[in-house]
Amino acid sequence: MNSEQQYIDLYQEQSDAIKRHSAEPLNAVRDRAFNDFKAQGFPTRKVERYKYTDMAALFAPNYGLNLNRLAIPVDPYEAFKCDVPNLSTSLYFIINDTFYTKMLPSAHLPEGVIIDSLCHVATEKPDFIAKYYAKLANTQEDGITALNTMLAQDGLLVYVPKNVKIDRPIQVINMLRADVDLMVNRRVLIIMEQNAEAKFLFCDHAADDRRFLSTQVIEVYVDENAHLELNCLEETHFKSTRVSNVYIEQQANSRVNHNVITLHNGVTRNRLDLVFKGEGAECHCNGCVVADKQQHVDNNTLIDHQVPHCTSNELYKYVLDDHAVGAFAGRVLVRQEAQKTSSQETNQNLCAAKTARMYTQPMLEIYADDVKCAHGSTVGQLNDAALFYMQQRGISLKEAKLLLEFAFVNEVIDKMELEPLRDRLHHLVEKRFRGELNKCEGCQLCK
């Protein structure tokens, strides 16, 4: 049986159960997504945006799914001890793909703000969700998005109304928990109206020593003059496979800061599609990857300049050791109407071992003639002269390597707006380079 067929059979047999445990706006697009998936299948390496990861192989194993929404016994507040010191957040949990409602933050949200189960809000306000859901994430263009859309039953909704600023950062813990190998399909919908402001920290953790396969589709609407910071941190384990597709639409004079950090994983494939729909918008997209052993991290981005006077800045850095494989493919598309565009795309990579592999493909596609655009990439090893200089001053070779690697990735971390988060990530990255298995002090997930 090929990889696609098991999911086609699954949907044909279980579509009634999937729909019964979800909401009408999510169900309304399922059959169409199923037909799109059946027509496309999983993207092969011949598809330009998937040339560095064998997607069919990732989905070939037979994982269990919780289609009947059985309750998973877990107290996330006991299992999760990874709070960021000095960062006061409103903390929410998603257990596998279900919004955790048994204990919600006591902090009062500004009037009109909604942070809740996507399925629940879709049941209460179907017309509102139908206006946004599965509009940016086009199932005809991507087989993974189609698969997620046909199987996802719940997830997270964040709605920030016009002129509302959320002062306290929102922290969302995506916790994988199961007694058997499990597949999880999660949706996130973020709606930022005019002049809204919010900062998010999404953390992915695995609570059990099982094989997990998670697909995630995030749709983000950022209206005029809105400001969003979206930080995504993965700290799972080597048995985890994570496929995440993020779709962002920006209107005039909006600002987005998107940061994705991969510290612990098995196989990770991140996709970012960002489109400028209004003039004067600005985005900063940054990525940091630390990988060793047999880990695989593939980041693929598309920034689509459709209108004039927009700015995009992109910086991704990788440090690879042992037999780790990294890939970065970033495409900046400047359409004919997008005059006065400013864009900078940079990918810098450090291979700490001769057996590590890095594939890099920064791309500019420009159809306008009045723009300032640049791109570039580097792949190299640690500087021998710098190592020698540091050893001459009494620093051991191991410590010198660590310091150079740490300094290399700091440029990405320092671009985050939340100072306590930057400090915490400096600490986590240093521990990661030192080979310490415990990700956060006191975290029970690592014991």
From TrEMBL:
Q: Which residues form the SUF system FeS cluster assembly SufBD core domain?
A: 182-408
The GO annotation for biological process reads:
iron-sulfur cluster assembly
What residues does the SUF system FeS cluster assembly SufBD N-terminal domain cover?
1-172
Q: Which InterPro entries match?
A: Fe-S_cluster_assembly_SufBD, SUF_FeS_clus_asmbl_SufBD_core, SUF_FeS_clus_asmbl_SufD, SufBD_N
Domain of life from the UniProt record:
Bacteria
Cite the PANTHER family for this sequence: PROTEIN ABCI7, CHLOROPLASTIC
Family label: Belongs to the iron-sulfur cluster assembly SufBD family.
Query: What name does this protein carry?
Result: Fe-S cluster assembly protein SufD
What gene does the UniProt entry assign to this protein? sufD
